[in-house]
Amino acid sequence: MAQFAESRSKRDVLPAARQQLATLNASLNEPQTAAVQRRLCTLAGDLFQLCGEVFFDSDNYADAAQCYAEAAHVSKEAREFDLWACAMTRHAFINIYERQYKHASPLLDGAAQLAVRGHPTRTTRYWVAAVQAQTYAGLGNLPACQRALDRAEQVASLDDKAPATGWLRFEGSRLDEERASCFVTLRRPDLAEPALYKALGQATSARRRGSVLVDLATVGAQRGDVDQLVMSGAAAVDSARKTASVGYVGRKLGDLREHLVPYLGDRHVRYLDSQIKDVVSASGPKQ
């Protein structure tokens, strides 16, 4: 998992993860005690989610969905409710990125129910709430979005918080950018901009910084501020190039192009549009 977190491109860890899964699968096909079987299923659930993240980060949603479905299956066999809920939440992310918010909702409702049965020191239920907020934002429901964000913020009051794992890294530090992203989706730049500048100062990785910069560019477009649109958009393009992160920053940049259309009479905006197109098309979906 440290290799995943530190990799410039998340595809770098895929061969090792697949090899470990093959080893686990061979062990699962042999006679085992119930306790060992559950442990193997738990490990497999962790690795399937890792592989799913790699595919998702590469904009390969079909393979990511398959991995998340397998992760949910083995997590269910292991009766690891937090792991199972996280697999469903990651699966819902695919629908969110495809803007299929109505399809994400039942997955997240199921994940929320599972999270209640999970370990009380895990942050699962708060992460599910944060992702539900994104879905409500996509559906245009500001009050429900804010309620979900408020539930997610309760993670700060969690006593004896369990250590982060490879499959559950939520501890609330990204809530400012997630709240701001929701407000961007809801086309509320007045609410989004203060949270985005706060989040930009807290961003600890090129991916997170790139994501916030795309949202700031979108806010510029929503407010008619071409200078902000161009400056933030160009900085986000630079982040995408540095991280080789098409599935994350690159996909958001692709969505940003829609907001450029009213301003294409400006040569700086046209240049930004061409740069975004080059970054996204050069990287392309990875198979």
Highlighted features:
single chain; 287 residues; mainly alpha; 0% strand; disordered N terminus
Short précis:
This protein is mainly α and 287 residues long. Helix content is 75%, strand content 0%.
Q: Care to describe what's here?
A:
The chain is mostly helical and about 290 residues long. About 75% of the residues lie in helices and about 0% in strands. The protein contains 14 helices and no strands. α5 runs antiparallel to α6 and α5 runs parallel beside α7. The relative contact order is 0.08.
Return the string of H and E elements: HHHHHHHHHHHHHH
Mean pLDDT: 89
Q: Return residue spans where pLDDT drops below 50 for at least 5 consecutive residues.
A: 1-8
Residues in helix, %: over 70%
Structural class: mainly alpha
* Terminal Cα span: 22 Å
Compute the CA-based radius of gyration. Answer: 19 Å
Shape: globular
- By DSSP (H or I, 4+ residues per run), the number of helices equals 14
In terms of quaternary structure, what is this? single chain
